[in-house]
Structures are given as C-alpha cells and as structure tokens.
Write a structure and sequence with these properties.
There is one protein chain. The chain is of the alpha+beta class. It is about 20% helix and about 25% strand. Strand 5 and strand 6 form a beta hairpin. It has 5 helices and 6 strands, in the order ββααββββααα. The longest helix has 13 residues. A 6-stranded antiparallel sheet has the order 1-2-4-5-6-3. It binds dodecyl-COA. Dodecyl-COA binds next to helix 1, strand 3, strand 6 and helix 5. Pfam families: 4HBT (PF03061). Belongs to the THEM4/THEM5 thioesterase family. One of its GO terms (molecular function) is hydrolase activity.
Length: about 210
C-alpha cells in the first residue's frame, strides 16, 4: 500500500477564484534571449570585501549576534566568494547545521552579487540541493555567480564547500533574483526600521551607491 502522503491531491496549477492562487514558476534556466551579466565599472575590486548591506541582516549584519555574519568578497567576474562558520545556534539536528540556515547562507551570498552589477535585486526563486551534512564548527566556503540576465530577472548559482575552498560541495543553489527599486524596501518594510535606516548616513550611502547606476 502507498504511504498516506502519496494520497495527497495534486495542487492545481492555477486556482484563481477558489481562494488559492499559484503563480506560474519562472524556470531556473535562462531563456535563449538572456544576455551575459556585466560587471559594473564601480564594482569592488577583485578580493575586496563587500561588507554588509544592512547591519541587522540575518545573513551578513554585524548587529545580529545569532546571525551568520557572512563575509563576502568580490571575484574578478560577476562573482563573489564568502565564508560562514556554523555555530551551535545554527543547529537543526544535533551537531549539524539547519538546512534553512544553509539556504540562508546561499541566499545571502547570492544577494551580495548586487554589488558586482550595481543593481538592487531580491530573491524570487531559490532551489537548494543539500548534498552533505554540515557539522557545527565547519567553515562553509561559498561562491556565487550571475550566469545570465533577462529583463529584471537575474539568473545565478551558488555552491558551499566544506573542508576548504576546493573541498566537496555540501550545498548548492540555483536562483532567480528580481531587480527592484529602493522603493521596494521603503514601501514594504516596517516603518520603525525604514525610518532608522533612512536616518543612518552609512545606510543612505550604501543605498545611494545603487542609484547612480548608469
Ligand atoms: C540598500 C540596499 C539593499 C540591498 C538589499 C539586498 C538584499 C539581499 C538579501 C538576500 C536576498 C533576500 O533574502 S531578498 C528577500 C526575499 N525575497 C523577497 O522578499 C521578495 C518577495 N517578492 C516580491 O517582493 C515580488 O514578488 C518581486 C519584487 C520579487 C516581484 O514582483 P514584481 O516587481 O511585481 O514583479 P513582476 O512584474 O510580477 O515580474 C517581473 C519579472 O520577474 C518574474 N518574477 C516575478 N516574481 C518572480 C518569482 N518569485 N520568481 C521568479 N520570477 C519571478 C516575472 O515572471 C517577470 O518576468 P518577465 O515576465 O519579465 O519575464
């Protein structure tokens, strides 16, 4: 007999009007008309630290004691590298990193690609493969790159290796990020944090870096 979970009815592809709305998924494979990404002339130099986009970011902010404190550096193309050390507060199973935390590490590394193109984008779709368990105290060596751009859609990929930068791949992801304007955050973020960010000269300077996009 099939297990009970096999008997779940399939989710309808689009059920508008029934209370369910399932958006069509964007393929993670760029369309034929997609173009290669362009490294912005003012992108950080290869090897230069990218820094956090927001000190309260769970992925890269220094103001989040339980966060990942991810430190990314620019590559020589439209790519970055980063490291994340798994701490006890990141556990899922005993002694092992939580899968959602590992997905966050991949997501935030992909997010730092914004600095290479001087485009603000947010995660639209992120598909993650978990290939090896990642124990506490492990340094996850991440790399991410943009593979193609189509309109506002930015196709990108990331891997996380253990045991060194050339070690075996433990996690990987393919993603589509969507370009947005700064208003995306101003209009949607909780007012307390938006007001605090807008009165922080460092935060305003980080945001302005994108607005001089030629
Ligand atoms: C100060 C510095 C800060 C810098 C801040 C940097 C932050 C980085 C942090 C790490 C990354 C994150 O965690 S970001 C946080 C997690 N992500 C989010 O919160 C995003 C929530 N989703 C949204 O707000 C929205 O759905 C958007 C913005 C993604 C899309 O809405 P929209 O702007 O109305 O887009 P729309 O016109 O419908 O679609 C434009 C094109 O994108 C495609 N598209 C739309 N949504 C998706 C999707 N989810 N997945 C795939 N593809 C999609 C459409 O098919 C279309 O393709 P075509 O028809 O043109 O072909």
């Amino acid at each position: 007999m099939r297990p009970a979970w096999h008997a779940d009815p399939p989710v309808p592809p689009a059920a508008v009007g029934s209370g369910l709305v399932t958006a069509p998924k964007t393929s993670l494979v760029p369309p034929a008309e997609a173009v290669p990404p362009v490294r912005h002339p003012d992108a950080p130099a290869p090897g230069e630290p990218i820094g956090s986009h927001y000190d309260q970011c769970f992925g890269c902010g220094s103001g989040q004691p339980h966060g990942l404190q991810l430190a990314a550096r620019a590559g020589d193309g439209v790519n970055v590298t980063a490291e994340f050390t798994v701490r006890p507060e990141h556990q899922g199973a005993p002694g092992l990193a939580h899968g959602g935390v590992l997905a966050t590490a991949l997501d935030d590394t992909l997010g730092s690609l914004n600095w290479l193109m001087h485009v603000i984008s947010v995660t639209g779709r992120l598909e993650t493969d978990f290939l090896r368990p990642v124990p506490v105290d492990t340094v996850l060596h991440l790399d991410a790159e943009v593979t193609a751009v189509h309109g506002r859609k930015i196709y990108c990929t990331a891997t996380g290796r253990i045991g060194g930068p050339e070690g075996p791949v433990a996690v990987r992801a393919d993603a589509v990020f969507i370009e947005v304007k700064i208003e995306h955050f101003v209009n949607n973020g909780r007012p307390e944090e938006i007001q605090a960010a807008m009165s922080d000269p460092d935060q305003v300077r980080r945001a302005r870096a994108f607005e001089v996009n030629p």
